[in-house]
Q: What sequence folds into this?
């Protein structure tokens, strides 16, 4: 599969835009507020799915109520934590692409999103320290797929 650099650039720009609040464990978690508002939190792969849909990819979206009263969103399939096949093909990426972190080590996107940049490297860090936004993950996508 060939990576579509133009589309990955759209994702990197979206991750840096501040439009997506960073969350963990689900592509997109929606928490309803008592006043009728809602709080949206995204995994980097959920943001990737949303960017693809906003840019013309015909992908179904389904909201599922969780036991804790929140909702999660699924794209095309019943998976809530990795890229569906249509989004994988749109970008030319795997379901959970490895991203090169600042130390030059490949880390699965979901691990980095949920546990921090060095979650996959026992020598540097043990994870459980996710970044508050997508700045470093955007850098990882750029470093890995755009050669910058």
A:
């Amino acid at each position: 599969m060939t990576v579509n650099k133009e589309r990955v650039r759209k994702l990197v720009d979206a991750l840096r835009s501040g439009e997506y609040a960073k969350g963990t464990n689900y592509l997109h978690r929606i928490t309803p507020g008592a006043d009728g508002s809602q709080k949206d939190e995204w995994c980097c792969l959920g943001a990737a799915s949303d960017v693809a849909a906003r840019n013309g990819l015909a992908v179904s979206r389904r909201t599922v109520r969780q036991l804790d009263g929140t909702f999660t969103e699924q794209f095309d399939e019943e998976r809530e934590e990795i890229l569906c096949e249509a989004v994988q093909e749109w970008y030319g990426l795997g379901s959970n692409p490895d991203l090169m972190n600042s130390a030059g080590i490949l880390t699965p996107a979901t691990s980095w999103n949920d546990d921090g940049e060095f979650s996959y490297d026992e020598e540097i860090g043990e994870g459980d320290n996710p970044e508050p936004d997508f700045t470093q993950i955007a850098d990882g996508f750029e470093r890995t797929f755009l050669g910058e």
Observations:
- DSSP finds five helices and six strands in the chain.
- The helical segments are 5-16, 44-54, 85-91, 109-115, 135-146.
